[in-house]
């Protein structure tokens, strides 16, 4: 009996083995041709796309861009005491962990209250720290934890042709990303408060105060406005593809001055002029009446050669130097008038907002 059970066990094993082998040959044709099985095909990964994406850059910078809602109270007309509440829409950029936010001054101008909507859905009331009308920048402050300052470089080195993205909240549709290139770069001196970065990244109502970032998510500027002109009927219209942002370095300096001093202080002498093509110096073309330059005796037609014995290289750097000189500082101007060299002492004034 025992021998029969052993034989039956072997016979049953052979039958089961033959059946399994037949099934394997049926399911894996390669074995019937002796080519073997490529087991790596059993562990294939999903194909990796080679598409170009800036998802990582947006992920680093977008949480730092907030929506700003400024509420103001307006009278309907001069002959009525009734008033209505008006909400202005804009964007802002979280610049520091302690809650300082940069935005545009025109976004919060005349606001009775300001609310900041973070990307994690928190809505926090903000206070105005200060503003600068020349650069159209304002600094806000919120008290909040777990906020994310935008990635920043001390010197972004923005170049014409660089890829950029504008992040903001156009038409209150929610955070939106548009892309373009830098069409023209702006200088960063305090005197040059209208020489912004020009880009073709689309800006619409609500984008003002948002972030212009590079392909790695670093802040290049604070988006400001698109270019406008008049049509044949003298109506204001937007110009597609011409948009502006305040350069990061200038915006950062303005913000720091506002936080420390409550305002941005710029020096001024009250003259304008043109530089020469092939030699140093600035030909004075206008002197404002009652200005420091006028009171010191600077005249139209004078040629400014040096300030404090530093030769004038170009008009832009000269204006920046004057703007960054504290008001009340005495400067020595080297001037040529009717082929005679003169030295004039002038006290730097403060650039006003008039």
From TrEMBL:
Presence of keyword Protein biosynthesis: no
Pfam families: PDZ_2, Trypsin_2
TM helices/strands, residue ranges: 6-28
Domain PDZ: 258-314
A molecular function GO annotation: serine-type endopeptidase activity
Protein origin, superkingdom: Bacteria
Alphabetized UniProt keyword annotations: Hydrolase, Membrane, Protease, Transmembrane, Transmembrane helix
Example GO biological process: proteolysis
PANTHER family per UniProt: PEPTIDASE S12, PROTEASE DO-LIKE 8, CHLOROPLASTIC
Family the entry assigns: Belongs to the peptidase S1C family.
Protein name per Swiss-Prot or TrEMBL: Trypsin-like peptidase domain-containing protein
Source organism per UniProt: Opacimonas viscosa
